[in-house]
Request: fold
Amino acid sequence: MQDVTEHFRGSGFKLFAGMIEMDANTRIWALPAPGAGSRAFCDRMNAWAIAEAQRGLGYISFEKATGVDRRTDIVLADSDSKASQFGQVDVEYAGKGPIANNLGPVRTKAIREQLGLKGGDAAFFVAGLRKEFVDFAGRARTKLASELGLIAQDRFEFCWVVDFPMYEWNEEEEKIDFSHNPFSMPQGGLEALDTMEPEDILAYQYDLVCNGVELSSGAIRNHKPEIMEKAFAIAGYSKGELEQRFGGMLRALHYGAPPHGGIAPGIDRIVMLLCGEDNLRQVVMFPMNQQAVDLLMGAPSEVSEKQLKELHIRLTLPPKKQ
Reply:
């Protein structure tokens, strides 16, 4: 995936150009798709995106090469100066589709060259705020790679994901909040918490990923009470609230704890990869359905009134559907 925002800034494709003008944080990402230049394939990807609760998946497809160098000089309008100029356009790899038609040949060619595409290829686009589209962009890339046979089979590729952000902005509550593990050690320790902007602070957190599947997740834990107090204060927790909710851990750290960390492997996910399965339900002993019910064991079962009374629990269940 590559950032192609500048190619759309001030362009004739008003949808993306307007989004960029309205919000400076807007980004346009392109997903190169070698061999995906047919109209039928592009329409199929667009239909898939709609089924994924998206508005669609814009694309540019490029004509297949003919072996003839069909370059031509045409008059091009400069969108910035509004002056006309002569430019050479590679007609052989002309872009097709609504985006290309509105973007113009010069910008379309620039995108193709940036992505390293040729005739018979295509590029798909996602647009908006990065944090809102990044998950879908990743799924779209995987979908493209799977459909086009670009994923290497019968091999395991590992990578470490490191340098997780310690904090993020919580849009719903409109405040800084922990992005993942509140008990991990911030990189830079107390000094980082005192001197850096919260969203710039990184944590000692890490994931081990194989073939796109998270196998293990871990962290270097915070073992100093003064750092924990400051870390939670940044996220809006008072000292009293911290002691009330996590007093046991805080008191333990006051007695002294060595630096420590770890990682927890997901054995079931490892087995899933070894078996060549895409779903954990295929490799676990008692899989649950989408309603979290174990059909083999008939679990969970209803709790008796006697058990509820022993635990001082009163249930207020919604009426059963007829």
Residues 158-265 form one domain. Residues 264 and 319 are 41 Å apart (CA to CA).
